[in-house]
Amino acid sequence: MARADGNERLRSSGSLFESFFSLDGAAYAPGALPVSVKELLGLVVSVMKDCEECVYYHLERCDEERVAREQVLEALQIALVGGGSVTIPLLRRAVSFMEELPTLGEGRA
């Protein structure tokens, strides 16, 4: 809820914010790549940019898109390879967060 409220405040603060949100929405819309794949890509970028809020958002979206847990874990491995060992603390938190999600929390080890 805080994310949505903050986004609305930004949108009402200037046209550049609104333009960015429109671009973001268009980038994640269905197209040649399925939305689920786009969310996995967003997850990898978010880990590599060290944006914890973004990681949680993309994990929630992956859950909503019913992405398989194994697919998310493979995407997180790609993020580790790209971002290096500095990503490990965020990856630990991401895997813990996944346990709270209906789809991604299934089949816990």
Structural description of this entry:
- This protein is globular.
- The chain has six helices and no strands.
- The mean pLDDT is 94.
- The termini are far apart.
- By secondary structure, the chain is an all-alpha fold.
- Helix content is 70%, strand content 0%.
H/E element sequence: HHHHHH
Shape: globular
- The total beta strand count reads 0
Q: Which structural category fits the helices and strands?
A: mainly alpha
Mean pLDDT: 94
Low-pLDDT regions: none
Number of helical regions: 6
| Biggest β-sheet description | none
Summarize the amount of helix as a percent range.
55-70%
**Cα-based radius of gyration, to the nearest Å:** 15 Å
Distance between the termini: 30 Å
Topology at a glance:
Elements (H helix, E strand, L loop, with lengths): L1 H10 L3 H13 L7 H14 L3 H13 L4 H15 L4 H11 L11
Provide key terms for this protein.
single chain; about 110 residues
Quick description:
This protein has about 110 residues and is mainly α.
